[in-house]
Amino acid sequence: QSNFQVKIYTHIFLLLKLSQPPTITQQSPKDYIVDPRENIVIQCEAKGKPPPSFSWTRNGTHFDIDKDARVTVKPNSGTLVINIMNDGKAEAYEGVYQCTARNERGAAISNNIVIRSPLWTKEKIEPKHVREGDPLVLHCSPPAGLPPPIIFWMDNCKLPQNERVSQGLNGDLYFSNVKLEDTREDYICYARFNHTQTIQQKQPISVKVFSAKPLTERRPTLLTPVGSTSNKVELRGNVLLLECIAEGLPTPVIHWIKESGELPINRTFFENFKKTLKIVDVSEADSGKYKCTARNPLGSTHHTVTVTVKAAPYWITAPRNLVLSPGEGGTLICRANGNPKPKISWLANGEPIAIAPEDPSRKVDGDTIIFSDVQERSSAVYQCNASNEYGYLLANAFVNVLAEPPRILTPPNKLYQVIANNPALLDCAFFGSPVPEIEWFKGVKGSILRGDLYIFHDNGTLEIPVAQKDSTGTYTCVARNKLGKVQNEVHLEVKDPTMIIKQPEYKIIQRAGQVSFECTIKHDPTLIPTITWLKDNEIHIVCRFTIQKGSLAIMNVTDKDDGVYTCVANTTLDSVSATAVLTVVDRPNPPFDLELTGLLDRSVQLSWIPGYDNNSPITSMFDGMHEPGVWHYQTEVRGTQTTVQLKLSPYVNYSFRVIAVNEIGRSQPSEASEQYLTKAAKPDENPSGVQGIGSEPDNLVIIWEPLKGFQSNGPGLQYKVSWRQKDVGDEWTSVIVANVSKYIVSGTPIFAPYEIKVQALNDLGYAPEPAEVIGHSGEDLPMVAPGNVQVHVVNSTLAKVHWDPVPLKTVRGHLQGYRIYYWKVQDLSKRRRRHVEKKILTFSGNRTHGMLPGLEPYSSYKLNVRVVNGKGEGPASPDKLFKTPEGVPSSPSFLKITNPTLDSLTLEWGSPTHPNGVLIAYTLKFQPINSTHELGPLAEIRVPANETSLILRNLNYSTRYKFYFYAQTSVGSGSQITEEAVTIMDEAVASRQVDIATQGWFIGLMCAVALLILILLIVCFIRRNKGGKYPVKEKEDAHADPEIQPMKEDDGTFEDHKPLKKGSRTPSDRTVKKEDSDDSLVDYGEGVNGQFNEDGSFIGQYSGKKEKEPAEGNESSEAPSPVNAMNSFV
């Protein structure tokens, strides 16, 4: 008979209204402990067709329910209800009950149900009188229960237990030795029955312990178990509990071993202060001898328990219901095991099979009943009983003989939906007798399904272990037996799995912040997903939580938001989830319970209990209050530390508080500790920062940093100020002053050295001897001027000044340095005096020379030198006159080009603003520029210094020229100024061009050219805004002086140059760099191009038209066409 019939026959019989033998569906446990405060209910429920009737036996004999008014049976049920609420007694109904359910097809019986009532036996309990140090056992003797009741002892509260006082497995309370404190009037044993949710208590026990001095120590003896050996039988699969409780003084310690073996790992536990050995899930391998040893300093004792593991009967094969058709055969098998091996006995309809009515189709063979050629009269309920001395098993199995054609119970056209790569189970629940054969087909004309791709279950279900998208379709189930055939269609759809493609991530957030978790899913388009967020595996919805498009946002995060967040994406077919942890951090909570211990004059120990760190490890900082309202930082310790030794000062009223610090910030300060006032003492230290300085030439001002309040160490803080002139043999002069920071000594010589010391004292005495410091009385102005002042002119802008130092005695103070006053007397080129503006340079220390930068060339200067101390300047040295040599001139003040003709231009200029010497000539260089902006040959003209204009003749008509113009002194050439100009066009050519300009085609061409130029300008403008090259810069670079490169090569500034391309107007990169650094201070004191103004600052040579020397060129410049001429002005 197939397994599936055992599970679904009942449903089928009821659905099809077929006859069915009785089946027990519900019954009370074999051992039933009833609650004496409630009615007794003994359950017995069964089903069958027709519905069964019920009867009961009690203690093996028929229980006549009608004769006892307290006993009733629930309607349509076999359950007994015994009313004991009205003066009934539960113990009157104790016994063994068994229920029988019977109909025309057979009879089924229940287990034997043992009814017991847990009542405490009444007894008179005498007070216990025991001598101090003796053992004591208080007996509990609780009533039986299943499961056994939980025992505990109390007086006013639960009694604490330890190695000396503990409770045994039987509920008794054991004292290894009693103490006077064990005296009590109300030792009460309580039994809690979890099954009935009741608690019962025993009568209180009084214990009085009387003193016995001296106490006599003794070696251990066992209180339980008694003797040296015992035996223990435990059933397989149960928990083995072995116990050894010993008495003795001092209290013994228990140790366990297994003789000839090891205690099983992972299944062995020690309880009740190692007095109980616990081994869970025992098997036959745990049989053996277990030894406990009780030991104290006076000796030991032991006990050996021989454990035998037996087994109550357990099923190997329980009998299963049989549904047969007439003429068929089958077997009922009842196989069980146990230790000892159980005995198998059969019953038919509740009667031993030996005395049951005979059935020729039935044959009993030990644990098997064989049926052959059954008929309808063969229907019955058979019971198998497997029993040994440790228990029994009872199973009902019916044999039902029916003749029925196949029937399919699964609804037609049922739709199954599964997720791809998961099993698909297509049902074909059927019934028939004989049992029908089942076949499956796919599609309308599909062949029978076979092979490894499918699993065919006995209940008709077709399993596709790994369903794929191509598994989608219609499947047909066919059931047939000798009485007929039937089929049914079901449909399968395979869907894409739901996936989380973006999972939430671990987050750390500070309290009161906001955080969000993302959860993005991908799913089958025909399924509608829902996303649910769980916190710590529970739905947690608050107003601060916002879920939008699957993402979870939490506003104003609190500590309660800390936890594990799970995104669960559900469809009707599958569910996926992803988790992330949210850790909420914040500043730590303040420490609390501050306590001061170890109170000494100079130290104290502070301890505290740290507050919660709010998920961020802490370091702790401490503040001590030294004066009212002011907290001072004291020390810092590791966050794991809870005590610190603090150094204290005398005569301070201390109070401490603790602040915890983590990565987020500082906690609120803890509550202040108790106050502690240290004893007064002499000062430990003297004032710091002692100095002696004079504010006037005849005094000495002694100043110091006074001690702070907590450094005074006692009341009456004062200072002893002492001084004497150094190296003159004077005695110390001392004065005691109040708590101030300054004392003035009058009548001192000018700038005399003094030895000074300041000592602290209070009402308890003086501080240690202070260190001496050297100070000076007040300064006065220096007496003499430096002598032998000499000036050496280095170049046209720099001079070096020398002088002899003054004697140190004449300084009359701290020498700070020398100061030079210098001013310009006359510009030699202009032969006139100018406004005198004196400049000052100070040189620190005992110097004898200094440099004067920024002088103007070709000028007359005066200077004097003075010595400087802390009081001021001394007298000036005699004025010293010196002159600077000529330098190179500045650029001409302007260059104008006027009166252009066909072949001439007129040049006008102004003399240099700063000639820096006598001008000897001007130099003019010029060269043509052709239509492609290339430079032509360079021409040079030397012009007398007294000239201010020049007419250049024999120039090309309609040609652009570039001019370079600079002045010269005997030292060299100055900076140049540049300009460009164009000669006018030939009149005949102009006339022709005017005629052309009146032509329509030329006008159209010019418009097209103008439009093209406009487009190019727009493009260039856009490129410039995007970082492109500025076209004006290109033009300026193209007009750069072509003679710069050879000039630089001459002076050796650059080592590597590429020759300038013939006719090119673009300078080399090095030339551009040189021009860009024209205002550098590299040539300070050496070159002639830079100078200093009157206040010593540097003036760079800047000019809007300033350029370097022109380049030489030998290419001729062609006259430009009208178009090129126009382009040259664009």
TrEMBL record:
Record's keyword terms, sorted: Cell adhesion, Cell membrane, Disulfide bond, Glycoprotein, Immunoglobulin domain, Membrane, Repeat, Signal, Transmembrane, Transmembrane helix
One GO cellular component term noted in the UniProt record for this chain: plasma membrane
Stored SMART domains: FN3 (SM00060), IG (SM00409), IGc2 (SM00408)
SUPFAM superfamilies membership: Fibronectin type III, Immunoglobulin
GO BP annotation list: cell adhesion
Region named Disordered: 1031-1130
Record-annotated Fibronectin type-III domain positions: 590-681, 683-780, 785-887, 891-987
Biased composition (Polar residues): 1114-1130
Membrane topology according to the record: Single-pass type I membrane protein
Residue ranges of every copy of the Ig-like domain listed in the record: 22-110, 118-206, 220-308, 313-400, 406-493, 497-583
Entry-linked PROSITE patterns: FN3, IG_LIKE
Compartment(s) where it occurs, according to its Swiss-Prot or TrEMBL record: Cell membrane
Segments traversing the membrane: 1001-1022
Protein name: Neuronal cell adhesion molecule
